[in-house]
Amino acid sequence: MNPLWLVGLTLAGAVAAAAFGRRRVYVIAVGLATTIVCYAAIRSLAPGQSGIFLQQEWVLDSSGQVLLAYMYATTTILLLIAAANEQAAYNTPVLLAAVGLFAVLTLLRSQWLSLLILPAAMLVPTLGTLPASPSAARGATRYLIWVTLPIPFLLVIPALLGQMTVRPQEVEWVTRSAWLVLPAALLWLNLFPVDAATSLWASDGAPLMPSFVWLVQQVAVLHLLLRFWQAHPSLWTQPVLSALEAFALLTILLGGVSAVIQASPSAVLGKAAMVTMGIAVLGVTQNSAEGLLASGAILAGRSSTVLLACATLAALYQIPAEPVPEENQQRYWQKLLLMVLALAITATITLPALPLSQEGAGVLGILSQQETVLQRLWQLSLAGIVLGQIRTIWLLWKTRLCRSMGRVPMVSGLPVALLLLWCLYLALEPQVLTRLALTVVPR
Amino acid sequence: MLTDLIALLEPLAATHAIQLVSGAIVAGTVLLILPGDALIAPVFLVQRGIVLVLLCSHLPWQVVASSALASFAIALIYLITVLRLNHRQAPGHPPAARSTALLNHIPFRMLGAALALLFTSALVHRFGPATLPSLMTWIVVWLLVQCAFSVLLAPTALHTASGILAFADAGRILYALASPDPLLWGLWAACDVVVVLGAAHLYTSQTAVTVSTPPGPHDTSDGTAQDPPRPPSESLESLPSEDTGTPE
Lengths: 443, 248
Hints:
The structure holds 2 protein chains of 2 kinds. Chain A is mainly α. Chain A contains 18 helices and 2 strands. Chain B has one domain. In chain B, helix 2 (17-33) runs antiparallel to helix 3 (40-55), helix 3 (40-55) packs parallel to helix 7 (157-176) and helix 7 packs antiparallel against helix 8.
């Protein structure tokens, strides 16, 4: 089967889901059927297949295949989480369209075209923003600002590299070109100082679209940038790596510390996800196989814990709130879900401390060999996230859940239970993350 | 027909370049000063049209055509969004989604626009003549400054989008010097359309919230508000019925 069919199928699924409008059950059925079929198809395809379409070469390489399988799997889980909510009718077509565009840029051979389709794919999730609160719309608007800004910087690179072929003695053109990749890396990976946008976007309700940005979009961006640097090794220079490293360290520190003043657990989750992303970027900048593996492992672990937190938040917001408090109600489900939420957010931030190998070396241990301040920054960040989550979870309990009645709907509880089991398994066997990372990182 | 039109406009860019650059700056200033959304589409079209006229002698006609098409699509999205919301606005409600009162004061915005012009002049004199022709420096620097001030002063997502488009136009003028690839140029134009589509959706979302719920006392602009989050189902109910229908 030609891998291009996957793109067509996903985009057709998006159109079909949109055509069903507000019929939630049909929309979810179409969404789940599309992503599950695509996941099964991509697993069955042999890597290395290629084809010509629209005068462009489309190739499915092995790392692209793993990335696509990851994207389809994550989107399927997000759709399952959304299934119980009214949001599903809004989110499903948008998620499918975005995944379809990410599939396009993963399969396209031309990296310059991929780099221009990437902003379009990144912009699509903003269309799924609900009018949940002014904060969500403000956060998404801020996110919108940064996405297309790197395009002019990237388009100048071929011209500058062309100068290098005319006058090979002028090495400064390469140095200048290398710096032009930095804005794309900073803005597309949402590192400091633009990391606050997605937390603000997530700050009310279950963070479905922001979770898509953290888990699918950021991983796709990292993959594409690594592919780009692999194809243009002259642009992978030490000063640029040092600058990227500095921004990653700032994201780790300030992301964690600013969690203290966030308004909701979803925003704290966003901060935790960004701190972990900072550590993953730090792994990439170490320019070593161990660093890259650590980066892949932490991203794989982050996906599981963020999905668990997202599912828990979706279930919590499904419990109806009553205006009059009723005494003598224990509200076990609410307390249980809040505990799971706290566990998921804490797990997201403590992932770097997990031992990834039989010898007991964690991501922090591996990365601290080159970056000595990392341990202290991470501890400060951890303190910020823990304080932030205690405060916001307490706020959520006092303002909403202590008055809420009823049980968690089965449809919302099921993803929480399954993801909790998976995360517990990962906590007991963290070496699984290393094995997953080995398949994710591009060779 | 388009090639004839381009042939007609090319001498205009050569003989009236100063007037065209001034026109683009005036259009940008108007975008910065006006807090309302009604005039964004026509003023944007004027500014984008001027930029295209200035560039048409350097670009292949396919590139100009793709840009013109994208510009019309953007203006149409702006227009439809504004008209839909004006139509929906209940009588007696304030204009939708104004984040703070200060940003709606025309004297404040005029001060902002004056500061933007001052910045542009200072930057052109500092960096200009050595690297680029004077007029090109003026328009590129102005578009960059306009982008920064549009984002800073934006009362709605539509204004933010106009700032993003100004930055893209500045980038396009510089990219036009390096024999641009028509396919990449066309994709970039498509990205602009998606930006405006996203902004229009966010503007509609903001308006739905503003109309249904008056701003709370604890609502702050930095996301550190103390108000409890509302579940998505509640907020969906607050949308106008023609937009959402009844959930099943």
